[in-house]
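INTERNAL AUDIT FORM
Audit reference: QA-55
Scope: verify that the stored structure record matches its stored sequence.
Auditor: D.O.
Record contents follow.
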Amino acid sequence: MAYSIVVGYDGSEQSSKALDAAIDWAKTVPDGEIIIACAQDRSGQAVGFTGVHGARMGVTAALTSMWDELEKKIEGELAEAATRVKSAGVGVATACTPDRPDVTIINVARDTSARLIVVGAKGAHAREGQRTALGSTTTKVLHEAGGIPVLVV
């Protein structure tokens, strides 16, 4: 059975460092593999742009286009990350859901019987100069991991 490591990935510098740490860890264990987990976190249309009035204004089409572009961007980032893992000689899989990042990471880890979760201290939405040590997603993952060790990079 593979030693699965789930990495929360959002394309940020911190998640890239988390991926590097996971690659290093996976190389030290027998049958190490990495599952790159990302979240689209797109629960619905923007508030105020729904309904008949928004549709007449072409806003629904614009939102659909925006989500399509976001999906392409995410797929590109995942492919690039998976290539990094493969080139390091480590097995890799990807998982992306429309859930919140913390929910995605925890669910993927549980569904795959992961032995480790690796996340960055802060993600793509961290504000410059933010005084907190950990981002909200990282904090939620730490609270919800339920016995799965979490490495924060």
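Auditor finding: record pair retrieved intact. Helices lie at 13-26, 51-56, 59-87, 101-111, 136-144.
Action required: none
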